[in-house]
């Protein structure tokens, strides 16, 4: 993704008639190359951290996009939305039970088991307070969700709602920080 090193290398090779191999260790050009390489590494690290933070939101939108497509790209009622949310919240239950059964009696929980339990608990807690999903209650918002191709930039233009376990629906904004 970052191309600073490539650009710097190209500039230096033009200046030196195509030879970048014969640089002195402390020369200005070698320092420029080093600085560009460090910058590229830093940018890659930041991009990886950002993608890791945004991944749960993208997975959630993908799940609801697929479910709406399965139902014919039609707007859904609150009860149908709650059923989809319930399915999403409890998608890790089988895996959690399987990991729990493989553990011998008297042993502490494994890291995977702890992580799954935390994830399930956090999703259930969010559902009680208001589960954030793309708006799938109107035809135009379902159409825009159907047009989503997986990019993060397009998510901010989608309308969002929060649905509680009690059935309350209210408008919401795309979170700038990560969700579960």
From TrEMBL:
Domain of life: Eukaryota
The protein's name: Translation machinery-associated protein 16
An annotated GO cellular component: nucleus
Annotated family: Belongs to the TMA16 family.
Residue numbers spanned by region Disordered: 1-31
Ranges of compositional bias, category Basic residues: 1-15
InterPro entries: Tma16, Tma16_sf
Gene3D superfamilies associated with the record: Translation machinery-associated protein 16-like (1.20.1440.170)
């Amino acid at each position: 993704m970052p191309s600073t090193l490539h650009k710097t290398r190209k500039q230096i090779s033009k200046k030196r008639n195509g030879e970048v191999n014969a640089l002195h260790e402390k020369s200005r050009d070698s320092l420029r190359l080093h600085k560009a390489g460090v910058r590229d590494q830093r940018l890659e690290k930041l991009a990886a951290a950002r993608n890791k933070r945004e991944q749960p939101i993208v997975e959630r939108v993908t799940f609801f996009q697929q479910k709406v497509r399965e139902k014919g790209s039609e707007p859904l009622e609150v009860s149908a939305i709650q059923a989809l949310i319930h399915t999403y919240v409890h998608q890790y239950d089988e895996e959690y039970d399987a990991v729990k059964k493989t553990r011998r009696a008297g042993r502490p929980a494994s890291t995977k088991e702890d992580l799954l339990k935390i994830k399930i608990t956090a999703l259930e807690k969010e559902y009680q307070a208001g589960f954030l999903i793309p708006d799938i209650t109107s035809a135009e918002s379902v159409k825009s969700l159907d047009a989503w191709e997986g990019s993060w930039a397009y998510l901010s233009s989608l309308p969002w709602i929060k649905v509680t376990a009690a059935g309350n629906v209210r408008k919401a904004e795309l979170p700038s920080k990560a969700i579960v």
